[in-house]
Protein 1
Amino acid sequence: MPGKLKAKIVAGRHLPVMDRASDLTDAFVEVKFGNTTFKTDVYPKSLNPQWNSEWFKFEVDDEDLQDEPLQITVLDHDTYSANDAIGKVYIDIDPLLCSEAATVISGWLPIYDTIHGIRGEINVLVKVDLFNDLNRFRQSSCGVKFFCTTSIPRCYRAVMVHGFVEELVVNEDPEYQWIDRIRTPRASNEARQRLIFLMSGELQRKIGLKVLEMGGNAVVGYLQCFDLEGESGLVVRAIGTACTLEKISTFPATATHPNNSSPSKDMKDSPQAAPSTLGCRSTHSSPVHSASSRLSQGFSVSVPTLLFAGMKPRHRSSEVPRARQCRPGFGEEAPGVPLSSGPPTPLRAQTFSSFSPSKSYSRQSSSSDTELSLTPKTVGIFLCPSTPALESESSPLPSAHLPCHLRPGMASRSTTPPPLHISQSDTAMLRKSVSFSEELLLAVSGMGSGGSAGKEAGPLKALLRQQTQSALEQREYPFFTLTAFPPGFLLHVGGVVSARSVKLLDRIHNPALGNTRSYKLLDWNSFTADEPETRDAWWEEIRQEIKSHAKALGCHAVVGYSESTSICEEVCILSASGTAAVLSSRFMQDGPLDTEHRLSRQPLCVFSTGSERVEGDMGSSASLGFEEVVSPGCGFCHIPYDELNIPFPAQLTYCYCCRRYKVPDVLFTTIDLPTEANVTGKGCLIQARLCRTKKKAQGEGNATAISSLLPFLEYELHTQLMNKLKLRGMNALFGLRIQISVGETMLLGLASATGVYLTALPSPGGIQIAGKTPSDITYEQHISTMQKKINDTIDKNKELYEINPPEVVEEIIGSPIPEPRQRSRLFRSHSESSDEVSELDLSHGKKDAFVLEIDDTDAVEDIHALLTDSPTPAGFYSCNTEIMPGIQNWTSAIQMFTSVRVFRLNANLTNQGLNKIFSDLCENLLKSLYFKLRSMVPCCLCHLNFTVAIPEDELIQVAVTAVAMSFDKEQPLENGKQSGEKTLIKAITENDEQLQFNLELNAETSSHNPLSSPKGLSEVGSHLSARDRCSSWIEQLKLKAHTIRRGSVKTTSSLEKASPLPEGRSRSLRSNRSYSGSSVAVVKMTPLSFIPGAKIIKYLGIINMFFIRETSSLREEGGVSGFLHTFIAEVFAMVRAHVAALGGNAVVSYSMKECVFMENPNKNQAQCLINVSGDAVIFVRESELESTSVQTQSATTHTSNGGEGT
Amino acid sequence: MSVELDVFVGNTTIMDKEVYQLWLNGYTVNDAVKVRIEGGVMEECEASAEVLLSDTMDQYRTFQMCERLLHHPAKLANQLLFQIPPDRQAMLIERYALACQFNSLDFVIIQFQTFICISLFRYYAFDDLFVREVLGKKLSKGTKKDLDDVSIKTGITLKSCRRQFDNFKRVFKVVEELKGPLVENIRQHFLLPDQLARDYAAIVFFANHRFETGKKKLQYLTFQDFAFCAGQLINNWTVGAVDNMMEDMDVDLDKEFLQDLKDLKILITDKDLLDQHKNLVCTALRGKTNVFNEMEANFKNLSRGLVNIAAKLINAKDVRDFFIDLVEKFIEPCRSDKLTSIDVNLYLTHYTNSAHILDTFKHHAVWTRYMGVIKSCILRMYHD
């Protein structure tokens, strides 16, 4: 019973008038936790009551503390009749359970009522006294930190990444029928809200338990979803990545750094990496370690975890020369490393013999009939950039590939390694089943360097690789919900893997007694609780499928993994997708250092005293200079799979950066663009939109119909994506998210991704239109005009996105070009001889270009879609990843927004008509956004997250959440230029350029009010422990030395250099100046994991809120738009208020998970349900940080220690 | 095929000033879109009419949501529903503070809510033309029904008329019951800048006493003339004017004072006193003006007029006719005698002062309080 929860009700304000006679209210408050309720006195006749209550104390289990929210109900006292409820406040006390998060909840929180919305505010104080529970068998998991952020949170370092955690809880939905019959269901809606709060608390606790079992202390990339299954209940499920995080000092630790060779090694690459979005971050292009050196290290690995601790820097330094030695051999050998993980299909054998398009089906591989029997239909589709259908180079007729998609039953579920294995070289072939010696196992741990094995180490390497894979594979799911990684963690990216499954939701009349998963919730509905095992099994299937897909791609892990569902009546589509990847356990070991390192250099996290360190880095990079020819930004593009065993007919070429390894011609991923990636030009949002009609059907028939439609849908989405990608002259997609929504009479597909031109990948060919009847002259003319239009568009887009593949650079860097080739007319033949070069006549018959057959109705449609996509207006960029490559100098102006549109369709539309409408809907929505945000130009809409739904027959709902961030126009040009150069000189000139800013900054900051010292700092400072102080005394010393030097131009300039947005900073400072001293509680919200121009100094806990709003006077509230507008604004207000109460000033990684809107205009009623989540943080403006550190030297020193936390 | 629902909500509230003004002016969404298209915003931003319509509707919705808050501006200071972009705030604070002489208000509040304050300011702004029409009328449903006539007469949209009327009514309702100085109350409860608060005080005051302002003879007077007079009355003739500590309202005239005014009748009923007064005034005026003869001839008439107004003010009905009486009994005679405002000033000064010299006249305090206001009102009203 180790917890005491204390709550105090201070006051209320702006309460509604509850007594018409007096126009006043007699308010009192009920505070409820678990089964205990306290009441305040009635404060008579006031709209601004001052209760100032005593401390209400609840003595409870920490288990309950995690599960239950604190419920505060404000009521109007009525002597004669029942007391009227004014509204409620749910307070999630989870942030208080973690010592590193918030310590108190204090502030004005909106009082919310499902019918009336926000009705005034209440001021409360909540604290928790937690006793330590060392009981091994405890059911609670207090202290496990949760983050929505899908990267290692900014002020932490990952000591260890344990892997995938998942859990789900199921319960009866108290009000599932509201969809049809909107009752006056305030009570049931409140019950729902309460239930979901409870369920998510329970879910979080259980996930936490799993994390503790794994030995972790945090969940990163926590993704919680609700499935409103209607009759069969309510499923709350969550996935995440378990990690062991360690708080890093706000002043990056420098003590260990100088003698650590790894970061300095990184540094030498940094000038090259300059063009990457986050500025100077860079890393190894590929692992430098040879296997043998690894073996000498004392590693130990426990199978379920990837350990990356314990390696001593000195080892690494000794490895460096060795690694270089190995390098030359890479090119030929590495890609040839055989993979153990080919799908075990007979077709596989064929794949090896020749590369004809038909081979690609091997991926679609085995079907298990058992699976089919489990569910009405299971469709597994394996998507990767070079899906056969999309690869027209190899297969000119896309339609030819359709058959392969017509095998819904073909989902591969094999987890066993393929029986067949053909090795190309003399490398050893190993199976997973091989029992390995302990020595080898040790080696495995350090391995993970994927296909980068040296020539001489070839066989061993292969073996090691095998072993690493095994180690990872032995874990249930080697999945990571992260989308951004510590540099070097991600070695190779295979492509997108996804799986879908159509299920029939069936109510299971099976009293779930003894079902531990929902035992807590049985009070709600003791008679039925759906067995979560069913749902578990469903997801398990899907995950197995994903896992086998990843294996087919030669990858042992899946990153950027996510799961989703779409439910219509009793049919449910489960979808999962991720990016197959090869991860480095070695880099996981390096991870913490690198993360920290990156943090220190990241413009957004730049901290004043980090400068010395950066200087050091620069120095080392100078010394190491150009020893490494291999560009660091291309390593992840290198194929992880066997060149001759390609699971699909991809066109492989040698990497355009390093010229050593093979890369695919196109790369699709679900992750964010790695910071170190070399990108040419800017990126843009690319969307494929599709609508398909479907016959109305019931039950199994319906499921079957959907299953058979799905492959076509996916295929077409990919064709569209590929077309649009080529039209923009780009060659890679990041952040790919494909949503399939199911309605009664149609299926909706929306694929969004950010297209970029990866320097390492070949330039995409053009799009070639081919007619079926070339004899017809008018027809040919028609075709040629279209062709011209397309070519013009491509040229225009290249200009717009500044895609000028660096031919010159190529010559400079690519000294050992393996084979001569012409960039733009690359002939990528499917006969594997990569030496074959041929000059092609561009006018006809080129295999290089993407060919669209005009007589194909689909193609006509595609072309149409291509040409109707309107370009973004001047000054705007858009992407669905965290940030836009090529834009660096963000200002502090950000605007997060949510926009929702519902469109009513006419009945009896054809597929084409539907497509056009849907496409126009998305386009118009984007146009509206650009118009709305015109005052922010130049700006970029980041993290554009579209969610489509079919709330009703003939209705399409599109919801968008994104953030608009403005940037400085002048700088990018300059920066772009600079980024082109990969010399150290550049960095130096940059220094000089920024001197003025520093001077200016200093002048300004000196006049800055010291009182503006952020609240967070002092708060963090209070966490100081003596131990910390001792442990980081070196930093302190350095810091002091540093602060003394601070005034000098030199130090600040080096600091500035680390920030790519000096202009933005100084500007933000200027605009800040006038109000920085005020107590204005502005809470910023952003779907990104960072805030430009600011440093996150503390994470206060996860925000996960669920609201239902209903009305029976829809017209009076301004119709559906007015109703939803108010509701969303209220949700924002409540999120902001809760964050402010936790002491935070921003929400990062904000997302709106659910926005279910239902209306019944005839009855003048509507309902909406919204689920939002994010991480509450305290951030400090860099400018403020500086001024604080300048003026209050010692205080900052202390703070820095505090920042390190406990 | 139609867009059923279309919303955009930002974490910080985006308000387009131009659209806001159109909304305040009572334009329909479609009219506003037309105006915007003519304004050329489409070319500027590569937008289509559709986009413009969507944006305008969205803005209108935002304003409607704001409107609820604008009705209770005191809540604005700590409302949570709208977050105002801080950079914009910073930019606007100084300008606004300067423009509105917002000195008395807590600066923090201003800083918090400048943007909304400006919205507020604009929301509560009114057309002089419109207010002239309803000034002194009862702020009742009946009057509201007649607003369409006002709308037609003034050319202001009915919507805008209604908003302005509702503003008057709202302010009236809140202030009516409050103690303390009227202007200050309005300023605090509606966060309005000083001048606007004074105007509202005048409107409330006029509505409360139902002063007649619509007669043809009064048409030449502007709202600002009346507002000035109202200010004079509020500052001198209400209870609050003499005693700030009083528990009474500023809205009502001081009953005791009105009662005392009856005593002034002696100035015209007592023949001796009247003559004496006339002599004193004439002595003082002689040689100082070209229209002395007219003044002398008219003295008794004018004096009777003014004193009679005073004596009648105890009746609420006669209070209503205060301004018409002033015009009929004093201003018109003076004007027909071609008195300049300098002449009037001179006359009234001596008329007031001479009364104090009269032996048997005891009501000096009341006389000063009365004539002070009368004089400044007449002087203000004495124009074409």
Note: The radius of gyration of chain A is 29 Å.
Protein 2
Amino acid sequence: MDMNSLSPTMPTSPLSMINQVKFEDEPDLKDLFITVDDPESHVTTLETFVTYRVATQTSRGEFDSSEFEVRRRYQDFLWLKGRLEEAHPTLIVPPLPEKFVVKGVVERFNDSFIETRRRALSTFLTRVADHPTLTFSADFKVFLTAPDGELSAHKKQGPGLLSKVGRTVRAAALALRGVRGRPEEFEAMSGFIEAFSQKMGLLDKVSQRICKEEREYVDEMKELGPTHALWAELEDDLADTLGGVASCLDRCCQATERRLRGLAEALLPVLHEYVLYGEMLTGVMKRRDHIQAELESKVEALTYKKADTELLREEVGKLEDKLECANTALRADWERWRQSMRLDLTSAFAASAERNVRYYEQCLATWESFLATQSDLYAKEPPEDKP
Amino acid sequence: MEQAAPDLERPLQPAPLEPLGHPDAGPEAAVGEEAEGAPDEEGPGDRTMTENNFCLKKIEISVSEAEKRTGRNAMNMQETYTAYLVETRSVEHIDGPSVLTDSLWRRYSEFELLRNYLLVYYPHIVVPPLPEKRAEFVWHKLSADNMDPDFVERRRIGLENFLLRVASHPILCRDKIFYLFLTQEGNWKEIVNETGFQLKADSRLKALNATFRVKNPDKRFTELKHYSDELQSVISHLLRVRARVADRLYGVYKVHGNYGRVFSEWSAIEKEMGDGLQSAGHHMDVAVCRKHELMQYDLEMAAQDLASKKQQCEELATGTVRTFSLKGMTTKLFGQETPEQRESRIKVLEEQISEGEQQLKAKNLEGREFVKNAWADIERFKEQKNRDLKEALISYAVMQISMCKKGIQVWTNAKECFSKM
């Protein structure tokens, strides 16, 4: 897994590559490849921030060129996500890495915070690119292609601040009111989301704990080999055996470190992403409920109002359509997400198990070859010439 | 030591080593292999046996069980202790059946008593060590509790090793007290105390306190002492590191066990993945190693062996010196006396000096004999130590291999579960 590949055509993780191959409707028509790399620190009088290089390769007609390279900062990603959620309230938009560093969330021993964030940002963009609907978002295109100055201008074009505030107030009021009758399928969905989030949280915690314990194990283990080597210096008859044990321990220690790195780089990010997905899903449910609540409140208004009912009826009709679309979109995206989730998680765990098998095989080989050199005692045969 | 008078020129040197034993006995019967034919006024001749000679007959000793008991101690307070069942079997023919000949219960303090007795009566022999009185290298979340089953188990093995080593030592195996330890449950303590070995131990301690550095210590002993010192520190360090590593590894396994639980819960909500998750979870649980699989006793035994060896070496190297000071005589020489008185004093002095020289010669001989035998036992011990340690290291490797194989099995199964989903 070459994280520092300079080629923009290389997806940043084999996992997402598998995703792409399996879950595009037409697998050989993947036509948009994105990488995120090269973090750079910028210091201005007001703030310090990091920008990342976002490189795109595409064969799509609607793009003016086939290659793009822009620099984006975390805020820009946040903006994009917000726009996608607004345009498609009941689609499952992928999660972004956390805004702030939460102590203990980031595995510090081999990844800096920036590196972890970089990978997560890359995953985010690739998932958007692979999503059958989100991939055609205009904001997405702008994000990928607009030269750096232009993006800020484009961002300002969104709904004004006041109207945003207005919407939030209404949303709060509706949230208070609540949804009258959630259809059963969404009730089940909501139940699943809650349980899933909880399980993911636990798995995330367990895996981080394992990393921590293994780190401490490796640290202690590092002393074992040298201690045996030290002892070997005191002995003559035993020196060989002790030296052999010492070098086995050193090799096993290195193998353990490799395994630990694999765990931190491959399994942990996946689990963490799905913890964040849990939050996304909760948001999706809320937005869906919100649309239904809007409809219900309009219907209620219609029941009690005597005049202007034509206008209201029209509005109710529109809202009914809106709800219908939202539900359908969610239903479809839900299925897609479920399949993707299952694949991601099982392959991550399978890969982790594979790494463990290889680790034990390496250690086994090391110790067995040591025993072969001690054959005179081990096999309880008369001493042979040592190899 | 001062020269008494200018014309006494024979330099009197302290014997390099002096065996301890009966303070006024002649050549110790304990020294040398002829224990059976010992002449003796007062050697431990009556403590060797010609009948049941364990070295010639094949016997098996095992410490097979441990039992909690309550009883009253010396201060008539109730206490809980562990008693160990010591069984002795004799094997008449090489592949023949073993017959249980003796079986009795002993507690740790009785083992200690036996060992202290052996230490006093066989000062030039490396007496095997006993397992620790308390848990020294404390394992994961194990308190240093003498009632803890893991601790009791380790101690049981240590006690068995102790008895087996004594039984296989060419000299120690013939000791009567040892024989009685294995065969006579009641009254044994009284018999041991009747030998008066504690007094000897006391006088030995006194003598040790009276020592000063010898002028020409035997180089071999000094080297051995250095080696022992360094070895003990290396091994203690090694055991501590191993304990910490095992602790950490146990922690890793334990946390993996949590996967099992979460997978089980997760499988309840995820229909398609349900079965796979359940079985993967089950495999994770199995991966937790039991504590004592991570422990390895042999090396600890070796460390203790060496610790006890070191102590004995210290005693050998610094030696005990029986000094007789001529100081007391000088006042008599230079006091107010007539020439005739002085003449007779000098004569007495000369006689005493000559006697002293004789004693010294005898002690020197004794010393050399002692050194020879001690060195022989040390060589024997060294070889045994090398054998034991090599075996211990190899069995460590074997243990690692079996852990790896188990790991491969567990994770291959888990991988299959995941791949099938």
Note: Chain B has a mean pLDDT of 69.
Protein 3
Amino acid sequence: MSRGLASNSKYSYTHLNGKGPSEAIDVHDITVKKSRLRIFSSYSGAAVFLTATLYLVVLKELCISSIWSILVCFSLAKVVHHKPVKKESVVIMPAFGVQLETHYWSGRVIRRFIPISKILKPVLNECVTPVTCHWSLALILRDEDELTLVFQKLQPPVRMLVPVWKALCAATECKGNQHHLNLCARNSAKK
Amino acid sequence: MDQQRKHRILMVSDFFYPNFGGVESHIYYLSQCLLKLGHKVVVMTHAYGNRSGVRYVTNGLKVYYVPWRPFLMQNTLPTFYGTLPITRTILVRERISIVHGHQAFSTLCHEALMHARTMGYKIIFTDHSLYGFADVGSIHMNKVLQFTLADISQAICVSHTSKENTVLRSGITPERVFVIPNAVDTAMFSPAPNRLSCDEIVIIVVSRLVYRKGADLLVEVIPEVCQLFPNVRFVVGGDGPKRVRLEEMREKYSLQDRVEMLGAVPHSQVRSVLISGHIFLNSSLTEAFCIAILEAASCGLLTVSTRVGGVPEVLPDDMIVLAEPDPGDMVHAIGKAIHMLPNINPHVMHSQMKKLYSWHDVAKRTEIVYDCALQSSDESLLQRLPRYLKCGAWAGKLFGLVMIVNFLLWWLLELWQPAESIEEVPDLVLVQNEHEERMQDFVEAQD
């Protein structure tokens, strides 16, 4: 079993290459680190929002400033709200398929299986939003217009996505050319 | 100092492909030539319809179509500080060293330059058009330009007339303004292989049919020329609000067989329209630099144009006949051009244009401007604020306040999302294999 490679303050990545009966199976996990600060701020944000709403509703003061303050509290609560996702994993079974799993803190697990023949290519995408730009790993599936995100709830950094992408490429390699990946150390000359 | 240092440039403008125009093609050609010189170029613009996100165009030029909706004439909604997060993210992840903004009319350009300056990057601005001083729109825009150029490293204008105009509008010192004229893709605009016969003379007009481009002058000039010169025919390409007036003129003087209206001409077909004629007529009322006449001269056409703005600086005297923007004078100029026509050799004209104008030359000159900008010293906010305060009694204080708020917002953003957490994008090197499909070498920079 080869274990954990990368981690940052929010996510940690582990790669389990199993031995024994499930020898061929490759499991890549991205786990959300439990942070007390994040949970606390999430609950307090929700509490502030609910208190403000109740206070204003009870007092029956629904004017512009009260609606505005409700909206502000709601958006603050939304920003600090932390998702109840414990970890997301990708189980690669070569020549068979790929299973995408989302594990929640409550114990619930959502799984989706994609047969290998359906996957055309895994791609690393740069997603641009009005405020930021982040990387995501997606699968191009046959007969489907939309890309399927591998990690649907989490946004791990790209250095955790690259080994998963490489493993997916190796598992779904096309018959002709194989991807030739050059990794060379280069000192990034920062200005 | 390493003179051959390669820069990492961010071009910002509201105007880029898939829009076609002078500014768009300027940014595109300049970026391509800078890529060939070995620099890294990234373009940032707003989303066009569904075209949103990261796209790669020819030679690996990366374009960020930021999903901010345009609100007026292809301009992004000006929110002052709204574009700070995305601009900062792009600047950090692409490891940009210089930000180059284009066109005074572009709100995204002004905002991005303001944010880049707050974060300490060197900025360059290129002005592509002439603007007035008297109407309300111009007054406001000139004030915005004054704000942006108050603290600029260097500015570039496309002609000496444009330099005068920019310096007067913004109050920037002339020493900081470089003049780098536009160029033309002479490979694409080449003359017809066989010379056209001079029995019937064809005059081509290709422009947007709007007031600014002198469509009203055309309405007066065309009937008179048709009457004076029976062997002259007109071909008018382009569309716009003034097209109706031209159609009316055709009806009134029964010129249906002598004036052909082509409608909007796609950019790829402009060359085939140009090579079908002998003379190119440009009737603009204002022009900082006219790329259209360069294209016409590159195709071997003799140009007749109004003497406005930067037009006299563009072509040598043997390739152009200038006239005042008055119908009588223009008719006289067209007559003169028709007499000059037998002495014109399109191929000689084309090879002369190849020597005079080239985008590679523009890129080399722009590189000099970048080197100059990078040599200026880094300054803190306190050292830069007095420059904004000089802009005016009230405006100066307002500009100073805007910059201070921007600085505070940037500092807050640094706390919320530190620059270290924004991952840098590795440089994508495209290796083209002639017999097989393209392979990509993913070159990763080690942290």
Note: The CA atoms of residues 143 and 170 of chain B lie 7 Å apart.
